[in-house]
Design goal:
Two copies of one chain form a homodimer.
Chain A: E1 20-27, H1 30-40, H2 45-48, H3 50-54, H4 65-78, E2 86-96, E3 105-120, E4 123-133, E5 139-150
Amino acid sequence: MIGPMKYPPHTWDDLSLGEVFHAGPRAVSRADIDTFTEVSGDRTALHTDDAYAARTPLGGLVAHGVLNLAIATGLAYEAGLFEGTVLAFRRVDVGFDRPVRPGDELSLELEVSQLDPRPRPDRGSASFSMRVRNQDGKTVLSGTWTLLLRRTASS
Amino acid sequence: MIGPMKYPPHTWDDLSLGEVFHAGPRAVSRADIDTFTEVSGDRTALHTDDAYAARTPLGGLVAHGVLNLAIATGLAYEAGLFEGTVLAFRRVDVGFDRPVRPGDELSLELEVSQLDPRPRPDRGSASFSMRVRNQDGKTVLSGTWTLLLRRTASS
């Protein structure tokens, strides 16, 4: 398994429209799914009951969609992009495109899609088109994230 | 702490536009934040480093936004609404409106906002306006969820 690519921390001013970043891969384990079940409280049988999940169209147990999203945020963290520059996660709009199964390896692609210098001189809003692919290159999660980032002037 | 309200499982056909459901409350602990840090891999200092977080505008450590979303899915599970009827989480579009701190208690409100009988006779798409409030009644998370639910004919 290849380690994550590392970027220097990016302030809002360091980003350019259309710029693309990559992170991952990271494998999703059954233990991750079990831990997420506990911390979320979402014990839906598709994520906890192998026999039940095997009888559904999914054919077996799958990760919670929000776990896949959580892992995507962890991949972004590991890539180092926003270390010390992120002030808040403002909005997420994502589709859960395909199931993720234990053992799948997820990679993240972020593309800068919108840069808004508001709300203040020391911070700005940055939106990213995001896409998570599995080890076969199939998209499992895609959409948009919006972050509040420090501006260079403030650091 | 009042236990969650319990509903019978709802198929797509059981839902009516404008119908409102409530779930929770549930307290968010520092241990929840630490567990989510591990499973997500998101070690952003705002969620892990008390001294750093105290120096930011937030004034102290806060829960990951996606943890708040995860807890909202757990509250929906605990309410029993979709037990055995949910086939997939299709889409989430939410804003992280306010910080959640250790000890805060979260409650969920879901309102049926759109009902689409596609894609097949045995399953339909249901969208919900969702809102998570803290113990002071302030909104910390709001937006829309879209689920794929069994239809009554198929159960």
